[in-house]
Amino acid sequence: MTLDPRPLAPALEAAEAAGWATVRLDLDGVRSKAELMRRCGGALRLPPWVGGNWDALSDALRDLSWLPAAPGRLIAVTSWRGYAEARPADWETLREVLEEAVDFWRADSGGEGDGPVLTVLLAESGPGPAAGAPPRAPRLKRRRG
Predict the structure, then answer these.
(1) Which is it for strands 2-3 and 72-78: parallel, antiparallel or unpaired?
(2) Which backbone phi and psi does 113 adopt, to 5 degrees?
(3) What residues does 72 pair with on adjacent strands?
């Protein structure tokens, strides 16, 4: 999902008002997987045991035990287009990791909203997908370290 940055501040404010933990993962200037992993580590305050690979990031997003308890968590990924253009395969993998984490937490809460929730927003300046465009189905592929 892509949002124009203007609605991002109200979304973050609403999540915080509901007691959710919010994180802004800014990918401005990121052009390598190593830099992406560093940026994720810093923004998400990942513990040192999380290695710089897809599986470790996926595991960390399904654990979240190092973070304070919250009814939900909102990760706003901003300025992602440059990375998506420079590293399309890695961008697809990151999207898959994020989607799988959201699905994990949705299933963990029973789909009823009675447990912690993880929501991810992709925010970027400039035009997003055309209104009414069908959502893109995720491509599943084997991740590599």
Answers:
(1) unpaired
(2) 75, 15
(3) 117
Are residues 83 and 30 in contact, defined by beta-carbon separation less than 8 angstroms? yes
Query: Considering the entire predicted model, what is its pTM?
Result: 0.77
In the prediction, which pLDDT does 137 show? Answer: 36
Two tokens, residue 126 = 């400039």
Give the dihedral sign, CA 45/79/82/129: positive
Supply the angle between the helices 88-108 and 33-43 in degrees, to the nearest 10.
Answer: 30
The vertex-30 CA angle with 66 and 56, nearest 5°, equals 35
Summarised one tens digit per residue, pLDDT across range 16-51 is: 999 999 999 999 999 999 999 999 999 999 988 888
Q: CA 30 to CA 108: how far, in whole Å? A: 32
- Which DSSP state fits 87? -
